[in-house]
What does this fold into?
Amino acid sequence: MKVAIISSGFLPIPSSKGGAVESLVESLLKKNEVYGDLEIEVFSIFDEESNNMALQYKKTNFCFIKKSKFAVLFDKCIYWCVKNILKKENSHSYRFLLQRLHYLKKVSRKLKENDYDKVILENHPTQYLALKWKKNYKKYEGKYFYHCHNEIGKTYKCDDVIRKTENFICISNFIKEHLKNKFDFINDRNISILKNCIDVEKFNQDVDKESIKNKYGIDLNKKIIMYTGRLVEEKGILKLVEALEYINTNQYQLVIVGGVVSKINFETTFTKKLKLECEKYKNNIIFTGYIDHDKINEMYKIADIVVLPSIWQEPAGLTMLEAMASGAALITTNVGGISEYVKEDAAVVLENNENLKINIAKSINELLENETYRLNICKNGYKYAKGYNLDNYYKNFVKILKS
It folds into this structure.
């Protein structure tokens, strides 16, 4: 079966610049090297490091599309205007508008020139443009799938193309219900659930904790509370920092791992606000900046407690699985699809309400003060996370394509 996987055109595959979706696609590619059920071609934006990483794959062909210098220049102008004149809070979402359109135009041409048994759109409705242009949706009718990792907002005048999607592959029942409510033509026949996965063995590997702590200036004798993820308001990182006011001990350090958009680091209004709040606890907080996903397992392994307090409708719980597989005690929130990935006895699951920061602090205090309780949470979390492994993910993906 010849399968085309079309990435968003924002971050490259292989995932040299990070990205949850890009890392999941790479997981499929790695397992396809083992099982070989599919002949895969991945469409990705060009990146020198990714191009080098691609050489290790024998059963996947990569079609790298280089950026248009014209589009890069105009995107910089658009971004500057949006950020400095219009002063939009989400200005970073305007950084790659023309570049992505250029990328999708190139993909559209390739789909027209080549033939595939299945076409997978990974995660953004703009990718339907690659099917709409050159009338590729007619050529691939009954053959194209949409892998939905987030709620869909705009449809970019592609409603007729979306309607002909063979199967919507959702990462959680939360996303499945969202799609069924948004589109009246979606039913149980043309929608599936494929839950995310992690490399459980990798996240459970032993690491040199002392060396890692020394690298980042982390106190060897203090308990480590950790946050991993993007530094954006909806991830709840500010709630966590505000909760530090109510921690009963000073014998801890909060390690904040991540940036605004994966490997692309820049300041926003929110990060400035966050860092200002962190000044109150500067002796207890360490920012590591972005860390490659290949190394993130090492960070989790030095954590005693991982706090991931999302305050938006998180579609699933990938970082939650990573934390549990690493053997850390997890504190998270009952929003979106997270509860589908996290069991009550395997983590502390809080309601997202006006008492969130107080409840985060109470949960941290209890885990710090009650070693037996913390270790029990860690044990149950690891046992539960083992079910979300790469082999199951790959086999379920292939099963959906063949059904």
